[in-house]
From TrEMBL:
Database matches in Pfam families: AA_permease_2
Keywords assigned: Membrane, Transmembrane, Transmembrane helix
InterPro entries assigned: AA/rel_permease1, AA_Transporter_AGT
Gene Ontology MF terms: transmembrane transporter activity
Entry annotated with the keyword Transmembrane: yes
Superkingdom of origin: Bacteria
An annotated GO cellular component: membrane
Chain segments annotated as transmembrane: 21-41, 53-75, 96-115, 146-168, 175-194, 209-229, 250-272, 292-314, 358-375, 381-403, 415-434, 440-458, 478-497, 509-526
Compositional bias per record (Acidic residues), positions renumbered to this chain: 548-557
Region (Disordered): 544-567
Native species: Streptomyces nigrescens
Membrane topology summary: Multi-pass membrane protein
Protein name in the entry: ABC transporter permease
Length: 567
């Protein structure tokens, strides 16, 4: 398309990034993104939806995330560029599918930033001070609470403003703290009170049925949490050895987080006082403002409560800082896809930070904070938008194997032809489990971004006296599968089982089978729709140029070593 940059222009912007992040720093980035506000609220929210079976919800969520993440590790190692997650659909299917995938991904990630600030302030509202308790009214932040959360957003912004090296050092230190405190919390609560009767009574292991387990995966913050595996991929341009470090960082961050989250969920389930469950009518009646801290106080662990109140700033702030960094790289990626003004592709030469993109995300974070003032409402929107962005990876990875088989792949799994369709099915199921009407609302949000795409692909060329239709036609044809997928999934969600918020037109069990079949059908349609579009051709040219430059450098170094010997 006419909006595509020349290879030299894109290479120039990327040369300002600093390849300074190793495997440990990237793993800390992924783990730090996963362990944010989710561990502070996720255990209670999952238990309220699924009861003790919430333990399984965390395991299912990890399996889904790991399966989908494996498709992205191949893509990330192939294209080690800033904002990688918003690029892959563009490379495999052109501008329409690429833009929809990038829009969904960006919405899901940028909204996490105000979510983390909201979590910190919500935990603070449990402090025994009048001013602190006035920050949260039980459902959402008050005006004062929004003001304090805004200060935190500015704090995240400035931590990223100066240099990627400052970000890496700060984040690694914070991540260590974020791993130690949850582990201590789980152990302390288990030792203080471990009531196995909580699993037997109050409705048993699955008080709300098995469907509630799947809904918990989709909307309780589980998908929100595991979505942090994207962060290392979005920082790929700053990875020292992306082919080796990115896959390790993604997989290890999910596995370590799974162990921590399951331990916290077990500790929470056993530590809730039985009389509180009885008084509230079971797990659904739970209503803690600061779940883990409230339980610590209930069992006399005041030191733990104080530690949790402190960590309520550290954990969400660490995650907010990471997402402020990764979303700025995503904006850079969207700009290089041709769908934002050139200013957002600029990277500061001195610091290696895309400052205009960072500033744009700060503004958008303020808007989200003004509209969604509670952690729960943000978690639902983020989770479903995240799942929509997930469907790109499985389709893109096999599409690129079809249309660009000779492209260098530092990571290439032999089982990918099996993993990719399974990942697409998992993504479709989690989207369905998100429940109607939430699924419909988020799919509608996807349509909100289309005018931006239409301006850059249709409106702008027309104002310049050009006719874009001939060039646009193959992009529309290649992206039709994704538009149809969203419409079909919205319809199935509306007609689906009542346990998932639908009208009940589809029998229980058959709805799950239908969604799986839909996911598989659209996977094959998507792969067959891929084509060698200009963005892919450009990326291939850049990679060849980089390989040639690297070979020339190596040859020069070899000659430099041999010369003294000959002399």
């Amino acid at each position: 398309m006419s909006t595509t940059k020349t290879p030299s222009a894109e290479q120039g912007s990327h040369s300002n990034y600093r390849r300074s992040l190793g495997t440990i720093a990237l793993t800390a980035t992924g783990l730090g993104s996963i362990i944010g506000s989710g561990w502070l609220f996720g255990a209670e929210r999952a238990a309220a939806i699924a009861g003790p079976a919430a333990i399984l919800a965390w395991v299912i969520g990890a399996v889904v995330a790991l399966t989908i993440a494996l498709t992205y590790t191949e893509l990330g190692s192939m294209f080690p560029k800033a904002g990688g997650m918003v690029r892959y659909g563009q490379y495999s299917h052109g501008s329409l599918a690429g833009y929809l995938a990038a829009w969904a991904n960006w919405i899901a990630i940028v909204s996490v930033i105000p979510g983390e600030a909201t979590a910190s302030v919500q935990y603070m509202s449990s402090w025994d001070f009048g001013w602190a308790q006035a920050l949260y009214d039980g459902k959402e932040l008050t005006g004062t609470g929004v003001g304090l959360a805004s200060v935190l957003l500015i704090f995240y912004f400035f931590l990223n403003w100066f240099a990627i090296s400052l970000f890496a050092k700060t984040n690694t230190a914070i991540t260590v703290f974020k791993v130690v405190v949850p582990a201590m919390t789980a152990g302390a609560l288990m030792m203080a009170h471990f009531d196995t009767d909580n699993i037997v009574h109050h409705g048993g292991f699955t008080p709300n049925g098995w469907s509630s387990v799947f809904t918990a995966v989709a909307v309780s913050g589980i998908v929100w949490a595991y979505n942090g595996f994207q962060s290392p991929l979005n920082l790929a341009a700053e990875a020292r050895n992306p082919g080796k470090s990115l896959p390790k960082a993604v997989v290890w961050s999910i596995v370590i987080a799974l162990v921590i989250y399951v331990a916290l969920q077990v500790a929470f389930l056993m530590a809730v006082p039985g009389d509180k469950l009885a008084a509230g009518g079971g797990w659904a009646g739970l209503g803690f403002n600061s779940p883990l801290a409230d339980l610590a106080i209930a069992w006399g662990l005041n030191w733990l409560a104080l530690l949790l109140y402190a960590d309520a700033f550290v954990s969400p702030s660490g995650t907010g800082m990471i997402y402020a960094a990764t979303t700025s790289r995503m904006i850079h990626g969207v700009q290089e896809n041709g769908h934002l003004p050139g200013i957002f592709g600029k990277v500061d030469k001195k610091t290696g930070v895309p400052r205009p993109a960072l500033l744009l995300n700060l503004v958008i974070a303020f808007l989200f904070l003004a509209v969604f003032r509670g952690w729960g409402s943000l978690a639902e929107i983020v989770s479903v938008a995240t799942v929509i962005s997930y469907i790109t990876g499985p389709v893109a990875v096999m599409s690129l194997r079809r249309v660009s088989p000779d492209l260098k792949r530092p990571v290439k799994l032999k089982a990918m032809p099996v993993i990719a369709p399974i990942a697409m099915i998992f993504g479709s199921l989690v989207l369905y489990w998100g429940r109607w009407p939430l699924t419909g609302k988020v799919i509608l949000i996807m349509a909100v971004g289309l005018p931006v795409w239409a301006w850059y692909e249709i409106g702008k060329p027309l104002t310049q006296g050009r006719k874009p239709w001939a060039a646009l036609r193959p992009h529309l044809k290649a992206g039709a599968w994704m538009v149809a997928y969203l419409l079909v999934m919205a319809s199935v969600s509306y007609m689906g089982g009542k346990e998932f918020g639908g009208k009940g037109y589809l029998p229980e069990g058959w709805d799950i089978a239908l969604v799986a079949a839909i996911g598989l059908a659209f996977y094959y349609w998507g792969v067959r729709s891929s084509w060698r579009n200009p963005s892919l051709v450009q990326a291939e040219a850049e990679m060849r140029a980089e390989d040639e430059a690297r070979e020339a450098d190596e040859a020069g170094e070899t000659e430099g070593v041999k010369a003294p010997v000959g002399a």
